[in-house]
Amino acid sequence: MRLIKALSAVAALAFLAACSSEQQAAATSGTSTTVAPGSVADFTQNVGDRVYFDTDMSSIRADGRQTLDRQAEWLKKYTNYPVTVAGHCDERGTREYNLALGERRANAARQYLIAQGIPASRIKTTSYGKENPDPPGSDEQAWALNRRAVTELQ
Length: 154
Prior knowledge:
By secondary structure, this protein is an alpha+beta fold. The chain folds into 2 domains: 1-31; 40-153, CATH 3.30.1330.60.
């Protein structure tokens, strides 16, 4: 009987130790939501790296201006990052049309950042047109998320 109680106590301790190890591993494995200030993750998670556009449009919407204002403030604080603004489109339209529209979107975001005081020499643009969908899909939800300009830290 004592042996059974002793084995039960050892098993319970082993179980508790395993649970503690799993919690400790989760805490150190990067599942934390805390990011280092001034890091790429900080920019992406806390500032926002993308602005969205209406169909066939390259004008900055009100929600996009808010995001670009946050980006400009962050970029003024962390001056060591040059950026590339990448313009994207949904899958509709020809390749040529979407490359040109993506370029207009990237340039619109770039010009907005410049107007907020970010030096033009820090900002490059590129257009992917419809070549890099995120997310892939052929419905209005996917299309809305693909009409975007993404500010990428270099």
